[in-house]
């Protein structure tokens, strides 16, 4: 039943996926702000808080959809929200990353199992650019071949004030094409607001 | 052109035996290419002359827009009468249509069950006349087999006959199918397989891209707009396909034609392969798609290129293949196959034509499909027939012998004729093609010369 609700709601979200108009005084939604503020404080850098998420997700760090909340020693972070649908209804999976103080695309290790041998290598974490998406104050490059937690995702990456930020979403039903996912990400991009560190 | 999924599925179901369903879109999406008229019917059934264009500075052959394969078993026991009747129909088709893509190409291949099991006298004649591959020490026509990267449930088919129909005009193919299979009461149709190729050489969206989009195939929106085939690279460049007569049994000198009945004939392998486009485009970046499709170390390909030169001078040497594999643990599709699919030395054919070292031997006639796996099957459960469209390829290739095909297919899996094995897992990403391709069906056929295309050997 829940899967049906998710699928139906996702359908509605797709219909309504026109980019949101930035509000005059856009702010991180109050119910989500605490988590994003805590993140900004922890990494001592601005972070982007979304004001819209693909259905059924919310962006409450510590809420029911949080999947990964990880901050590395270099202050780079991964915040992941996941709804795992029942009975093959699909997943809705959105990742936010930030790399404070650096703008180069990071390198990821690749591991290809091959019988008794394992082939290890290094590759850009985001590759195969497929276009540009813009929102007020953001010019993001869309990438379609991504690694680690962003594998099978379409990803937007942009630079701000000497740091690199990304948001990505899994291409899987109910958002089962790169075009649908890019639509979601574009809408999401338009809703991003910066949360500055405090203290 | 956009077809909603409901419309498409309705069309596909209705198309099983009669109309062409989604494939009718081909004619609405792409005008027929300009073709140079072909005057005379070649002696060979498999020779189908194609015009060429330049693509990214490389000469490429323009494939027919439509292709269809009908497989069948023989239900008549009067083979001589059937031979006469079928030949009459084929002669009529020859008279009606030009022997090029603007008209119609008809190629009949006959499977082992036809030669071995239909008629005792025929089986005796086959034992005398079927060609033998002296290099391999095997008959030219081999039983179908699975290869290391094939799933365990790949269906090894046992059809008596396969008829390949090729044209830029859907209605020509429809007319030929009806004339052969509805007009004569000699065959029981076992499958119909349809598809398309090309478009895109004029810079507009190609057929595979537009057809996949129309059908809602996962990953369709990731296919490059002008790609000749679903996987994004041009596969019909002239230098990558065997020249006109090279796939004849007799051309390269390793087939004993015995009495000569099959001189001008060839071997045809037919398979269906499903393709995971999402995995290909979301998990392999452009450089890795190049590496996988061609060879390791090929780093000078412009991002987004679709036509990567495959001239004789671009052929990978064995040393390059093995050094690349030792260094990276991986190998490319072209690099491994070219060890067997390209001539190792100059060869002079029986007509005096010199085929230079590095020349391609196989003549491919593969085409993309949305069949899952076929448009029609007489054994839908065995074939796992589904109305849900799926990206795939009906792979058709002509080689001088079945063993010659097998050498190439084994090389694709890293198994070379001298016993060298590039040790990759059966479906490992180390040979990336194998991780996104799944072969569902296979069968080998003998394609007689045109004069013996109808129920070969039945007259003896």
Describe the model.
The complex is a heterodimer of chains A (199) and B (460). By secondary structure, chain A is an alpha+beta fold. Chain A has one domain (2-195). Helix content of chain A is 21%, strand content 40%. In chain A, β5 (107-114) and β6 (117-124) form a beta hairpin. Chain B has 460 residues and is of the alpha+beta class. Chain B has one domain (5-452). In chain B, 27% of the residues lie in helices and 19% in strands. Chain B contains 14 helices and 18 strands. Residues 1-18 of chain B have low confidence and may be disordered. Chain A binds chain B through residues 112-115, 117, 119, 123-124, 127-128, 144-145, 151-153, 171, 176-179, and chain B through 218-222, 278, 281-288, 328-330, 423-425, 428-430.
Low-pLDDT ranges of chain A: 1-24
Classify the helix fraction of chain B into a percent range: 25-40%
Number of domains of chain B: 1
Rg for CA atoms of chain B:
21 Å
Give start-end ranges of low-pLDDT stretches of chain B. 1-18
How much is the average pLDDT of chain B?
92
Work out the largest interface and the residue count of each chain: A-B, 20 and 23 residues
Q: What is the overall silhouette of chain B?
A: globular
- Quaternary status of these chains? heterodimer
Structural class by SSE content of chain B: alpha+beta
Number of helices of chain B: 14
Span from first to last CA of chain B?
A: 53 Å
Strand content of chain A is 35-45%
What is the overall silhouette of chain A?
A: globular
Tell me the number of strands of chain A.
Answer: 11
Strand order of the largest sheet of chain A: 2-3-4-10-9-8-7
Query: What does the radius of gyration of chain A come to?
Result: 17 Å
Task: Kindly estimate the percentage of residues of chain B that lie in beta strands according to DSSP.
Answer: 15-25%
């Amino acid at each position: 039943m829940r899967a049906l609700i998710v699928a139906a709601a996702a359908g509605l979200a797709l219909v309504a996926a026109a980019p949101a108009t930035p509000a005059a005084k856009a702010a991180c939604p109050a119910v989500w702000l605490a988590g994003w503020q805590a993140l900004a404080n922890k990494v001592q850098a601005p972070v982007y808080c979304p004001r819209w998420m693909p259905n059924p997700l919310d962006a409450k760090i510590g809420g029911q959809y949080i999947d990964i909340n990880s901050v590395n020693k270099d202050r780079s972070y991964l915040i992941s929200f996941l709804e795992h649908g029942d009975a093959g209804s699909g997943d809705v999976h959105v990742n936010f990353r930030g790399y404070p103080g650096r703008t180069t695309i990071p390198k990821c290790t690749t591991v290809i199992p091959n019988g008794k041998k394992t082939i290890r290598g290094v590759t850009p974490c985001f590759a195969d650019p497929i276009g540009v998406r813009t929102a007020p104050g953001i010019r993001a490059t869309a990438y379609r071949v991504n690694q680690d937690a962003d594998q099978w995702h379409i990803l937007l990456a942009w630079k701000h004030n000497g740091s690199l930020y990304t948001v990505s979403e899994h291409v899987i039903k109910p958002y089962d094409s790169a075009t649908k996912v890019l639509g979601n990400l574009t809408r999401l991009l338009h809703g991003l607001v910066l949360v500055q560190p405090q203290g | 052109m956009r077809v909603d999924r409901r419309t498409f599925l309705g069309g596909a179901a209705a198309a099983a035996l009669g109309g062409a369903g989604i494939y009718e879109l081909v004619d609405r999406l792409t005008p027929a290419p300009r073709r140079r008229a072909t005057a005379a019917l070649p002696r060979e059934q498999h020779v189908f002359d194609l015009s060429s264009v330049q693509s990214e500075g490389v000469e490429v052959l323009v494939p027919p827009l439509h292709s269809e394969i009908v497989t069948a078993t023989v239900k008549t026991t009067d083979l001589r009468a059937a031979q006469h009747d079928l030949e009459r129909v084929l002669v009529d088709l020859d008279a009606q249509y030009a022997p090029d893509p603007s008209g119609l190409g008809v190629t009949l291949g006959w499977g082992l069950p036809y030669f071995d099991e239909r008629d005792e006298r025929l089986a005796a004649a086959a034992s005398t006349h079927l060609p033998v591959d002296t290099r391999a020490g095997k008959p030219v026509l081999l039983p179908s087999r699975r290869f290391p990267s094939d799933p365990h449930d790949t269906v090894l088919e046992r059809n008596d006959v396969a008829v390949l129909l090729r044209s830029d005009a859907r209605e020509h193919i429809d007319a030929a199918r009806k004339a052969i299979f509805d007009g004569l009461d000699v065959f029981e149709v076992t499958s119909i397989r349809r598809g398309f190729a090309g478009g895109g050489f004029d810079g507009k969206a190609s057929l595979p891209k537009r057809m996949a989009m129309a059908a809602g195939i996962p990953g369709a929106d990731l296919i490059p707009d002008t790609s000749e085939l679903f996987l994004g690279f041009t596969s019909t460049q002239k230098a990558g396909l065997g020249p006109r007569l090279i796939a004849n049994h007799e051309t390269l000198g390793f087939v004993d034609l015995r009495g000569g009945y099959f001189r001008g004939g060839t071997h045809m392998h037919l398979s269906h392969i499903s393709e995971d486009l999402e995995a290909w485009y979301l998990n392999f970046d452009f450089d890795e798609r190049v590496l996988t499709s061609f060879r390791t170390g090929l780093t000078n390909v412009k991002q987004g290129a679709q036509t990567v030169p495959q001239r004789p001078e671009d052929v990978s040497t064995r040393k390059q293949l093995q050094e690349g594999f030792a260094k990276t643990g991986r190998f490319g599709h072209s690099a491994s196959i070219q060890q067997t699919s390209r001539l190792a030395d100059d060869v002079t054919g029986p007509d005096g034509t010199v085929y230079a070292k590095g020349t391609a031997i196989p003549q491919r006639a593969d085409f993309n499909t949305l069949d899952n796996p076929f448009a029609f099957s007489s054994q839908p459960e065995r074939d796992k027939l589904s109305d849900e469209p799926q990206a795939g390829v009906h792979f058709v290739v002509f080689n001088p012998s079945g063993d010659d095909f097998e050498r190439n297919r084994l090389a694709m899996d890293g198994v070379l004729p001298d016993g060298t094995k590039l040790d990759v897992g059966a479906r490992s990403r180390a040979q990336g093609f194998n991780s996104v391709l799944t072969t569902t069906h296979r069968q080998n056929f003998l394609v007689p010369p045109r004069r013996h295309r109808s129920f070969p050997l039945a007259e003896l």
